[in-house]
Design goal:
Elements lengths: L4 E14 L3 E8 L3 E7 L18 E8 L4 E10 L2 H4 L2 H17 L7 H16 L4 H15 L14 H12 L12 H18 L5 H10 L1
Parallel strand pairs: 3-5
Antiparallel strand pairs: 1-2, 1-4, 2-3, 4-5
Helix pairs in contact: 2-3, 2-4, 2-7, 3-4, 4-6, 5-6
């Protein structure tokens, strides 16, 4: 009996060459959480998967499920986010977001909110309506909120009221409406400081993509 073909909707977090022509993908999916998958022949010039088997690609992936991974046979691409890959700094932010998502997510868990956050954050990077550095801080905080690792920040923390309001807005606002505000330099500084503090407290590793991004911005 032939294996059943599944359709998984998600975004490619990682893509690495395997052998002469294949790629190993890590995909954050709506249906199965973070999964590993192989795209056979994806590095061949005539492969239908050559463009889809890359980071940032958001698609419906038709797969077969194996014991330890999936095999992708077809992709119905919804958004390549190609503009990110063509802009070094935007790509730096994008890869940082992908790395955080890869850190937090697991297979067979409901990772729908993280997937939504990723998608909307990539769109925000391309919109030019909000500063990239603010997009980064919103993403970092909302990622912690989604994973239950961000405490409520009250006015007793000695912050400006506008800072408390901004942090509360990120905590309580649906992902689709997150990237709709700006802040002053002072409020941004307070937000960045407190978000850095809690990331250091809750995340037990550094992110190589953030180090590269910071070097590019300097």
């Amino acid at each position: 009996m032939s294996a059943e073909r599944l359709t998984l909707t998600g975004m490619v977090l990682l893509a690495a060459p395997v052998g002469d022509y294949d790629k190993r993908l890590v995909i954050l999916t709506k249906e199965r959480g973070r999964v590993s998958a192989f795209a056979r022949g994806a590095r061949r010039q005539n492969s239908a998967m050559i463009a889809a088997a890359n980071p940032f690609c958001f698609a419906e992936f038709e797969c077969y499920e194996g014991r330890d991974s999936y095999s992708v046979v077809k992709a119905n691409v919804k958004n390549y986010f190609r503009e990110l890959a063509e802009h070094p700094v935007l790509a730096g932010y994008g890869f940082y977001f992908l790395e955080i998502a890869n850190y937090y997510t697991r297979e067979n868990l409901d990772e729908t909110m993280m997937l939504k956050l990723l998608y909307q954050s990539m769109r925000a990077l391309l919109s030019e309506k909000i500063e990239n550095r603010l997009i980064r801080r919103i993403f970092e905080m909302k990622a912690m909120v989604i994973n239950g690792e961000y405490p409520v920040v009250g006015e007793q923390a000695g912050l400006e009221k506008a800072t408390v309001y901004a942090l509360s807005f990120i905590t309580n606002t649906p992902v689709e409406r997150l990237y709709t505000f700006q802040v002053t330099e002072k409020i941004y500084g307070e937000m960045a400081e407190i978000i850095d503090t809690f990331m250091k407290k809750h995340i037990d590793r550094s992110f190589k993509s953030l180090e590269i991004l910071q070097m590019m911005e300097q």
